[in-house]
User: What shape does this take?
Amino acid sequence: MYCPNCAHENQPEIKFCTRCGTNLAVVSEALSENVAGKVVIDERLAEVIKDYYHGRRDTITGLVLLPAAVKAVSLLILLGLPPVASFFIVSWMVFWGIAALAGGLGKWVAASGEMKALGYTPPSSKLWTRVQKLLSSSSTSKEAKRSTNMLAERVEIPVSVTEHTTRELEARRRVTPTERQ
Assistant: This one.
């Protein structure tokens, strides 16, 4: 067995790594799946969570396809293609968009209700949490009259993953040792 800490090869019957002292008994139990506190997966909840995210994805697909179909029809008409031909070219976008939007919304709403009934709340993103905080704080103050553009300017959206990671690491460095405990 190899030690997960130092990668030293040990005899299978040894309980501790001979190089670094890591408890190999716990590692061998985890690998053999004989852990006493084994996690039981609720299959129904897993299926509901899948439906929730599939419904959300289908809703977004429908919301993207419908305006794209309208833009495609207008572009094809501007290019001089007869309206009948442009209709047949983009009709699949319209029907697919309507079907995706309707089915996705239905699945998304049904899964949301079932998740609430099962006592599960989906995790929210940091951006959505910030927007909710800004909306709740601005509704009680003078900022309620400002436009949504002002709200969007206050939410910091990282330009890239690298920039986001750099900001997170800098924020962790600023934390004092007493705050870490």
The helical segments are 24-32, 43-78, 83-118, 126-138, 148-154, 161-174, 177-180. The CA atoms of residues 46 and 139 lie 37 Å apart.
